[in-house]
Design brief:
The complex is a heterodimer. Chain A is mostly helical. Chain A has a single domain, classed as ABC transporter involved in vitamin B12 uptake, BtuC, CATH 1.10.3470. Chain A has eleven helices and two strands, in the order H-H-H-H-E-E-H-H-H-H-H-H-H. The termini of chain A are far apart. In chain A, 47% of the residues are buried. Chain B has a single domain, classed as P-loop containing nucleotide triphosphate hydrolases (Rossmann fold), CATH 3.40.50. In chain B, strand 7, helix 7 and strand 8 form a beta-alpha-beta unit. In chain B, helix 3 packs parallel to helix 6. Classes of the chains: A mainly alpha, B alpha/beta. The interface between A and B is medium-sized, with 16 and 24 residues.
Chain lengths: 295, 235
């Protein structure tokens, strides 16, 4: 029982982590909590089923195309909604992000309807639901293996991009001092666009994984997932990429254990309780540095 | 090489530069001196395109760069070392230097330039794997200058390189400024330390409340009675 809960929690946790890094990276470069990020996650799932359902694209290719489409969408949102407010008060951008989130939810309802719909099961390779490993009472399907493999390789890839490439170093430089980055000749707009593209593609992947895992998707699915991933990012220390990864996993496990041992009704409550506790006792998060509020 | 003609720059409603005109010729060290708030840093930020001018024109190597984006100006060979050094504290010394070379061609031999910076400032070599934020103030200033050199600029804008540093470190930094100038880099040097600046520069401008009030060769400025009284603290 405990082991199976841990597996469920970890599965959920790595997915939260995937969404949370998108929040934390954007916060790092433009100090904005991008509330529309949850909607990118939702659009990722819908893009994927649309590619499969309407165009007959194979499952794995559809995932890649959906990530690309979501990247483009993330870049577009930043360009249209946030960039014009770059020198405005932070609150103006924050409110815009909330508005963008509501707009995108409603846009999805107009396009795909408001009712939950299943993922297109016929498109999902059958072996994913077969058992991969059985250890005592714990069963791991190939879908679990797929989720872990995808999320871990993406986390490693992301770390390599951020720490080893020129554009990744430019992202970190921009997060530390925008004026200095500009004076080095770094095209600030291009780096911000790149950050949105990167975060959005990971968010879309998370949405697809969740839609396949639970076999369900709906236009408001990004709200709760977004809030939880945000909680994970805060837990890990907003602005810290390793922190967001860790925060996602901790939150997923805490939630699964809470649901398993207390009551499944408290599943969401656990996430909020964790977030409140972090804000009260360690506002800078597990791996975050104490920062002065610049608002 | 660089020409500012009747520059007006505003911060919101604040009229920070009120018609600044100045020229820097190739190979010169020109200094811009003046009190706090005179508009020295604003002048440099206007040249770099961080706070573009509302009126007037900035020309660099015959091209109008008044409203050009900073990355294009840096690509033309005009790099700034900003006030307060603004190094990237969480990046290593080496990563800081590589960010200075951000627009350089991938195939360029950056190792050669890196070694040149280490030759100018040997302490940076020892510290190359350390985060920039762990360096002392003087070392950070060296890193800021080294980082700008990595861009291989034709012209350097230096904003108060002596600020808050011990006299011996200031001597060291000014010696390096002289050396890179002798090796072909034109320099526009903003300083509150007028004594040091006028000893190093060929010519100078005195800025007060957003306007150029005096200009001349360093020798003329050093002997000018009002400069001596107001900026050099001499009779």
């Amino acid at each position: 029982m405990l082991e199976q809960q841990l597996v469920n929690g970890l599965t959920l946790g790595v997915i939260y982590a995937l969404i949370a890094v998108g929040y934390t990276m954007v916060y790092g470069v433009i100090e904005l909590i991008n509330f529309a990020h949850g909607e990118i996650y939702m659009f990722g799932a819908f893009f994927c089923t649309t590619f499969i359902g309407a165009m007959g694209v194979p499952f794995y290719l559809a995932i890649i195309l959906a990530m690309a489409a979501a990247s483009l969408m993330g870049v577009l949102i930043e360009y249209v909604a946030y960039k014009p407010l770059r020198s405005s008060h932070r609150l103006a951008v924050l409110i815009t992000a909330i508005g963008m989130s509501i707009f995108l939810q409603n846009l999805a309802m107009i396009i795909w309807g408001s009712r939950p719909r299943p993922f297109i099961q016929e498109a999902v390779p059958a072996y994913l639901s077969e058992t991969a490993v059985r250890l005592g009472d714990v069963t791991l399907t190939w879908l679990h293996v797929f989720i872990f493999a995808v999320t871990f390789s993406m986390m490693i890839g992301l770390n390599l991009i951020i720490n080893r490439t020129k554009i990744g170093t430019a992202m970190r430089a921009l997060a530390q001092n925008r004026t200095a980055a500009q004076l080095m000749g770094i095209n600030v707009n291009a780096v911000i666009s790149f950050t949105f593209a990167l975060g959005s593609s990971l968010g879309a992947m998370a949405g697809i994984l969740v839609a396949v895992y639970y076999n369900s998707m709906y236009p408001t699915m990004g709200y709760v997932a977004g809030v939880k991933a945000f909680a994970a990012a805060v837990l890990g220390g907003i602005g810290s990429v390793p922190g967001a990864m860790l925060g996602g996993i901790v939150l997923g496990v805490a939630e699964a254990l809470g649901a398993g041992y207390v009551s499944s009704l408290y599943r969401d409550g656990v996430a909020y309780a964790v977030m409140i506790a972090v804000i009260i006792f360690r506002p800078s998060g597990i791996l975050g540095k104490a920062v002065v509020d610049k608002a | 090489m660089l020409e500012l003609r009747d520059i007006h720059t505003y911060y919101g409603a604040i009229h920070a530069l009120k018609g600044v005109t100045l020229t820097v010729r190739e190979g010169e060290i020109v200094t811009l001196i003046g009190a706090n708030g005179a508009g020295k840093s604003t002048t440099l930020m206007t040249i770099s395109g961080v706070t573009p001018a509302r009126e007037g024109s900035v020309t660099f190597q015959g091209r109008d760069i008044t409203r050009q984006s900073t990355d294009k100006t840096v690509a033309m060979g005009l790099t700034q070392v900003p006030e307060g050094r603004m190094i990237f504290p969480a990046l290593t010394v080496r990563e800081n230097l590589l960010m200075g070379a951000y627009l350089r061609n991938r195939r360029d031999d950056l190792g050669k330039d890196e070694n040149y910076v280490y030759e100018l400032f040997p302490v940076l070599k020892e510290r190359r794997r350390q985060p920039g934020g762990t360096l002392s103030g003087g070392e950070q200033q060296m890193l800021a200058i080294g980082r700008a050199i990595m861009a291989r600029p034709r012209m350097l804008l230096l904003d108060e390189p002596s600020l808050g540093l011990a006299p011996i470190v200031v001597e060291n930094i000014f010696a390096v400024i002289k050396r890179i100038n002798e090796e072909g880099t034109t320099v526009l040097l903003v300083e509150q330390n007028a004594q040091m600046a006028l000893q190093t520069a060929h010519r100078g401008y005195v800025l007060a409340t957003g306007e150029v009030i005096l200009e001349g060769s360093s020798q003329e400025l050093i002997t000018n009675p009002s400069v001596r009284a107001a900026y050099l603290g001499l009779d």
